[in-house]
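Reviewer 2 asked us to include a model.

Predict the structure of this chain.
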Amino acid sequence: MDNTELLFNEAKERLINAKIALENERYNLCVSESYYAIFYAAKSLLSKINITPKTHSGVMSEFSKHYLKTELFSTNIGKYYFEFEKNRNKADYDILISFNKYKAEYSIEKATKFLEEYEKLKK
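Predicted model (structure tokens):
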């Protein structure tokens, strides 16, 4: 299995984790795992073109440059990556933030769309 496939498998695993977190009313964890589903899918796409950023911001920058600005990936769906990165930071590092069920469900819905858009590129 190559790196691209491993990264996308991790993305799918993180989406499963997000759904489990939602079922257990762990909304901050759900929001965080939804972000990581998108993050690993973006890393997988970059891996396809032999780009391997080492940081979250590097992945965001390179994904934007190679997939959003070139319109290879839907910009309407791609924008969730940037929104979710902010939410993930709040969920992981701000103990005063508590996301609700609505935001957790929204996160899963949009992460799912991101992974579906990824699948379109594989065809």
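The domain at 3-122 is CATH 1.20.120.330 (Four Helix Bundle (Hemerythrin (Met), subunit A)). The chain has one domain: 3-122. We have added this to the supplementary material.
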